[in-house]
């Protein structure tokens, strides 16, 4: 006896005359990413009357890496990134957005529809889509980049070193690196903040906080050239302009050396920048009609929670306008 494959996909048309599948998995708007941009897009999409589905396995996305969100208007005392992401997620859910809490493996396009396949092999279709998958942290270009003891989130992994008299290294010079160092300074005996150049990219507030911490050592004009150890990092090889190469004993290393766009799920020909970010027009549409981008994934000059939220709201608005202009085929 043949295995039951579930209800057949019967070809039908929506009220715009566009082909769709009669499988209950058809939407007006499909959103890739459950970070600030994706959640805000879902919130606005639902309020604009769009049937919306969101893919992403972590509500709030990478905002959980923010220990204290202090520059979001209206939050006088600030909040944690985790709390912000949770509240935004619950708000969008309340509006009726469908959060799958799973990742999308691929997004393609076929016969006027965006086709998304999730990690369980389930197919979903939509008339428009917003990519809000953000960025993922870069690893150091060393011989053994995936060695144990290499981390990207001080809030998540810093507690692993509590009570161990640890010496931890942070590599980077921007606000993210500063936040890592400040967080780890409460856990470790010593934190080495290693910056490749002498010009720090962090803002003045973070610089002052770093200078006030007695257990943070700032090492400028210093570059990490390798990890030393068996399965786990035991020391790092660094090259300083004045001191030359030396090995520094550390118990763990936290990287904040930059980001790369997370576009692995896209199976579409879309115009990108040289760095791989999605190029958009003034209405946040990519070069592929009906495909929009919001937040850190697109070509922008500012990567902030606030600007990601603004992108999400705008992308949903322009997606709704796009759907209104669709004509029957």
Write the layout of secondary structure elements.
Blueprint: E1 11-13, E2 19-21, E3 26-32, H1 36-47, E4 52-55, H2 81-94, E5 98-99, E6 104-110, E7 113-118, E8 123-131, E9 135-137, E10 150-151, H3 154-157, E11 167-171, H4 175-184, E12 190-194, H5 204-211, E13 216-219, E14 222-229, E15 233-240, E16 244-249, E17 252-255, E18 259-261, E19 291-293, H6 305-325
Parallel strand pairs: 3-4, 3-8, 4-5, 8-19, 10-17, 11-12, 11-17, 12-13
Antiparallel strand pairs: 1-2, 6-7, 7-8, 9-18, 14-15, 15-16
Helix pairs in contact: 1-2, 1-6, 4-5
By CATH, the superfamily of the largest domain comes out as: FAD/NAD(P)-binding domain
Instruction: Please provide the ordered H/E string of secondary-structure elements.
Output: EEEHEHEEEEEEHEHEHEEEEEEEH
If you compute it from the alpha carbons, what radius of gyration comes out, rounded to the nearest whole angstrom? 23 Å
CATH topology label of the largest domain: FAD/NAD(P)-binding domain
Number of domains: 2
Let me know the largest β-sheet. Answer: 7 strands, mixed
Cα distance, first to last residue?
40 Å
Quaternary class: single chain
């Amino acid at each position: 006896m043949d295995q039951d494959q579930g209800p057949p996909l019967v070809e039908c048309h929506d009220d715009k005359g566009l082909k769709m599948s009669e499988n209950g998995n058809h939407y007006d708007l499909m959103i890739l990413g459950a970070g600030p941009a994706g959640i805000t897009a879902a919130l606005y999409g639902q309020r604009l009357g769009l049937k919306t589905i969101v893919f992403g396995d972590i509500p709030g996305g990478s905002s959980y890496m923010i220990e204290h969100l202090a520059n979001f208007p209206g939050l006088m005392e600030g909040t944690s990134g985790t709390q912000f992401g949770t509240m935004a997620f619950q708000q969008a859910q309340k509006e009726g957005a469908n959060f799958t809490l799973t990742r999308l493996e691929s997004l393609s396009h076929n016969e006027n529809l965006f086709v998304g396949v999730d990690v369980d092999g389930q197919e979903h279709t939509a008339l428009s889509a917003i990519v809000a998958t953000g960025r993922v942290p870069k690893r150091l270009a060393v011989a053994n980049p995936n060695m144990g003891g290499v981390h990207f989130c001080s809030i998540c992994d810093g507690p692993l070193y509590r009570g161990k008299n640890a010496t931890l290294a942070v590599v980077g010079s921007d606000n993210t690196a500063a936040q890592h160092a400040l967080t780890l300074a409460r856990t470790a005996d010593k934190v080495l903040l290693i910056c490749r150049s002498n010009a720090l990219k962090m803002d003045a507030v973070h610089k002052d906080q770093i200078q006030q911490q007695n257990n943070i050592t700032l090492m400028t004009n210093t570059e990490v050239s390798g990890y030393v150890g068996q399965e786990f990092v035991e020391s790092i090889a660094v090259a300083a302009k004045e001191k030359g190469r030396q090995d520094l004993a550390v118990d763990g290393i936290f990287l904040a050396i930059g980001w790369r766009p997370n576009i692995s799920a896209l199976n579409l020909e879309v115009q990108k920048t040289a760095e791989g970010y999605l190029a958009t027009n003034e209405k946040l549409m990519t070069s592929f009609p009906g495909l929009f981008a919001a937040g850190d994934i697109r070509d922008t000059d500012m990567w902030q929670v606030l600007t990601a939220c603004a992108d999400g709201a705008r992308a949903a608005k322009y997606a709704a306008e796009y759907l209104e202009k669709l004509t029957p085929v």
